[in-house]
C-alpha cells in the first residue's frame, strides 16, 4: 500500500506549559468546530476546534489528565498544570479527537473545519462555519 503524503504526515503539538507533548500521524479526520455546552464550559470560549487522528503518541513528561464528560462514553484530556485542552476520547469513534489549537502548526489545509456541531447553540455574534462536507445525498 502506498502512503500518500497526507497519510505519512507527522504533526506535533502540546499544551501551553510544555509538560504534555504529542505526535499525530496521518490525515486529519472530520475537522470541525463545536458549539456544545461542554466545549464552551471546558474551553472558556464560544467554540472549540477539533480534528480526529487515528494515531497519537504522547511524547512529553506527562499524559493528559482525563475528565469524563459522559462517564464510560466520553472524556476530555487536559494539562493539570496549565489547563490547556488537548484531546477527547469518544467511545463511538475509533479516532482520538485533538483540539486543533494544541497543534504546533494549525495552518494545514486539511484542518479547516468542514462543519460545525451544535450550531444551534452558537453565540449569536459568532456565526458557525458553513457545512462544506461532501454530500452523499443524490
Ligand atoms: Zn501544560
Ligand atoms: Zn462540543
UniProtKB/TrEMBL annotation:
<feature type="domain" description="CENP-V/GFA">
    <location>
        <begin position="11"/>
        <end position="120"/>
    </location>
</feature>
<dbReference type="Pfam" id="PF04828">
    <property type="entry name" value="GFA"/>
</dbReference>
<protein>
    <submittedName>
        <fullName>GFA family protein</fullName>
    </submittedName>
</protein>
<keyword id="KW-0479">Metal-binding</keyword>
<keyword id="KW-0862">Zinc</keyword>
<dbReference type="InterPro" id="IPR006913">
    <property type="entry name" value="CENP-V/GFA"/>
</dbReference>
<keyword id="KW-0456">Lyase</keyword>
<dbReference type="InterPro" id="IPR011057">
    <property type="entry name" value="Mss4-like_sf"/>
</dbReference>
<comment type="similarity">
    <text>Belongs to the Gfa family.</text>
</comment>
Amino acid at each position: 500500500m502506498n502512503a500518500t503524503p497526507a497519510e505519512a504526515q507527522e504533526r506535533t503539538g502540546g499544551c501551553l506549559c510544555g509538560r504534555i507533548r504529542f505526535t499525530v500521524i496521518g490525515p486529519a479526520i472530520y475537522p470541525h468546530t463545536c458549539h456544545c455546552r461542554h466545549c464552551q464550559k471546558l474551553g472558556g470560549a464560544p467554540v472549540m476546534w477539533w480534528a480526529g487522528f487515528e494515531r497519537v503518541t504522547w511524547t512529553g513528561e506527562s499524559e493528559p489528565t482525563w475528565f469524563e464528560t459522559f462517564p464510560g462514553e466520553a472524556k476530555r484530556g487536559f494539562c493539570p498544570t496549565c489547563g490547556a485542552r488537548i484531546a477527547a476520547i469518544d467511545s463511538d469513534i475509533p479516532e482520538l479527537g485533538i483540539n486543533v489549537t494544541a497543534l504546533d502548526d494549525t495552518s494545514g489545509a486539511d484542518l479547516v473545519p468542514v462543519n460545525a456541531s451544535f450550531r444551534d447553540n452558537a453565540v449569536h455574534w459568532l456565526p458557525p462555519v458553513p457545512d462544506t462536507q461532501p454530500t452523499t445525498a443524490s
